[in-house]
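Priority: medium. Attachment 1 of 2:
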């Protein structure tokens, strides 16, 4: 983990991307007093006043706290989580999905309670009632956006309807990010110390809207910079009690990761097409040389059909593996560029996840879902959390015991439910 810890100015290497990449400064009004200095001063005064001290005690210099990297632990059980999800599903069907906020509260309450850090469990304080109010607001937003679209379409104004639809989604997206961060973090605690989010909706909206415009004019190339800019803004405004966060990733790095795997996929498609073309050409030439087999060109053999199926599945497996490699590298990129500010120093985050481990997890999860017709989905979610949590670590110099409460209460869950609608999460 020590290789991820930044120096006194950890973002010098990232300064060429954006000035906003600079690490956040500690806004705390309390400055820690090094215990070693006070001990030394007291000892100096004692020596100056007493010429021959009796049984002088040795001065012990204070040592910085160090621990093997702090990792998360997860103790959830698939069977218990399955019962929660089953009851939630039944009640949602009976209530025409109006039970959804309470279902989500029950789900998050269990998952938080089963997640441990430094010997203590997390707790989710949100309630179904709070999220139900946000759920109603979300329904109103959906009705307005899609109602405007269908009304314009019914009046044969397709262009206007499309602009209203996508314009509404552009407005709602930053609202969902802001609301999800604001509500979810303010209702999450550890040892009674709450998380918090101090970002402003107007600033986030401006970043998102400008990013969308530039991305449109660059044919989507600039979108990697938009993602990084949004993540940096949200991360810099997250608080965990007295701990601050920062994200130092650069847009060019994320863009190169995505570009690399796009090239890989195109190379696989071209190479696969060449092999299939060569095979078909060879088979065709063989049949042309033997006039008795000309009629078989329109009636492929069973072996040829099986070969086609095998080639298709092999192609899908290669593409899936490349997508999985891309996902792992992006996760690694996000984790390795996240830092925590505490006690006047930066503490790095590390994700220890190999491609083979992720591949095995993904294959087994896919088989469980396929062969159980989706019934095993709750077990798959629990298996995934058991896989991810221990692999996410914070530098050992981080001190959980020195956290203090700094955040205020917040109960508006509208953004939380809009975030669910747009499939936005804080991960």
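Attachment 2 of 2:
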């Amino acid at each position: 983990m020590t290789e991820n810890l930044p120096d006194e100015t950890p973002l010098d290497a990232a300064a060429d991307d954006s000035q906003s990449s600079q690490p956040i400064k500690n806004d705390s009004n309390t400055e820690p007093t090094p215990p070693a200095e006070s001990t030394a001063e007291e000892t100096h005064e004692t020596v100056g006043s007493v010429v021959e001290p009796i049984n002088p005690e040795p001065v012990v210099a204070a040592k910085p706290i160090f621990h093997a990297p702090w990792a998360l632990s997860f103790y959830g059980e698939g069977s218990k989580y399955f019962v929660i999800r089953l009851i939630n599903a039944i009640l949602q069907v009976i209530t025409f999905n109006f039970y959804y906020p309470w279902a989500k509260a029950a789900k998050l309450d269990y998952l938080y309670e089963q997640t441990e850090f430094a010997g203590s469990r997390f707790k989710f304080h949100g309630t179904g009632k709070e999220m139900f109010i946000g759920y109603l607001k979300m329904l109103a937003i959906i009705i307005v956006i899609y109602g405007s679209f269908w009304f314009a379409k019914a009046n044969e104004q397709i262009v206007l309807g499309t602009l209203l639809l996508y314009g509404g989604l552009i407005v709602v997206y930053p609202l969902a990010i802001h609301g999800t961060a604001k509500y979810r973090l303010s209702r999450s605690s550890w040892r009674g110390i709450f998380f918090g989010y101090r970002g402003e909706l107007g600033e986030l909206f401006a970043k998102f809207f400008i990013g969308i415009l530039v991305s449109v004019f660059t044919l989507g190339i600039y979108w990697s910079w938009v993602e990084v800019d949004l993540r940096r803004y949200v991360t810099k405004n997250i608080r965990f009690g007295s701990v601050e966060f920062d994200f130092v990733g650069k847009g060019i790095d994320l863009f190169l990761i995505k570009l690399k795997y796009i090239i890989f996929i195109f190379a696989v498609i071209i190479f696969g097409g060449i092999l299939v073309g060569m095979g078909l050409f060879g088979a065709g030439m063989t049949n042309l040389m033997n006039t008795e087999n000309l009629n078989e060109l329109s009636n492929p053999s069973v072996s040829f059909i099986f070969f086609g199926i095998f080639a298709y599945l092999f192609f899908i497996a290669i593409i899936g593996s490349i997508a999985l490699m891309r996902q792992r590298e992006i996760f690694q990129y996000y984790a390795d560029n996240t830092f925590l500010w505490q006690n006047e120093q930066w503490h790095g985050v590390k994700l220890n996840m190999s491609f083979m481990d992720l591949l095995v997890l993904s294959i087994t999860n896919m088989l469980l879902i396929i062969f159980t017709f989706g019934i095993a989905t709750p077990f798959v979610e629990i298996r995934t959390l058991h896989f991810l949590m221990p692999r996410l670590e914070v530098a050992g110099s981080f001190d959980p015991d020195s956290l203090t409460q700094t955040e205020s209460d917040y109960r508006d869950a509208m953004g939380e439910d809009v975030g669910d609608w747009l499939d936005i999460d804080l991960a």
